[in-house]
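Quick one, T. Sequence first:
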Amino acid sequence: MSHRQARGSRMGDMTLAIAVASPVTAPISHTDSHMNSTARNSSEVRVSQIDGEPDAQDFVEVRLPAAGAYLSVLRTATAGLAARLDFTLDEIEDLRIAVDEACAILLQQAVPGSVLSCMFRLVGDSLKVTVSAPTTDGRAPERDTFAWTVLSALAGEVESTVQPDKTVTISLHKKRGAGPGQP
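Structure tokens:
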């Protein structure tokens, strides 16, 4: 149930009524037509294939209000994308927990009413997940905490960055078939 809409990009865009249910070969964006400037009433999902890479990459970007009530959407997206890459059930569950934990870390210091952004990149047999949110203090997560240990054990490679505007980003990289704690 989708409607095509020309938006001037090289590959064309589509507006989705409900969800993406099949492999994507062109950018797809979903924007609620009733969106306003507050994060509480907005969400956006973009799915695309990145041109110019030796092996074309698919990416999915989800923007949601920075509130714990919306994390189930990201857990579901994580599971669906990991399944698309033929991750095992254990790997899928590990990644779901890791994404949830990364978001929980960011939500502790997120600016009230802000937007949580999550970018999924499907590259070969790995999934790269980047979660970011504007924060009140712009501090990177501490690496000597239990939460960081969980992230590292479940996702393989984990890193964080802080932008000058106090946006904190946590990046996870999980490769299919890698054991616990391995990138």
